[in-house]
Amino acid sequence: MRCPHCQSASTTERSDRTAHGYRRFRCRECRRGFNERTGSVLNRLQLPSDVVFLIVLWRLRLKLSLRNLAEILLLRGLVSLQT
Fold it and tell me: Which of its termini does the chain have fewer beta carbons within 10 Å around, N or C?
């Protein structure tokens, strides 16, 4: 995997993973750490990618409101989307 910071191909995979189970890497040239989601729009989200895609699918395909989505996720054991 290329480094998203310096675009170097000399990276090493670390043995540990993030809290959501994503692989972690370290660049040998710039010495910065990153994971699979670094540089994407999903990087700062606190939810796993599969849950985010499921929410988007339900919102667009089934035309569910945000309140309905929050209730469904609450029933499945996830924290509510509304604050």
Answer: C
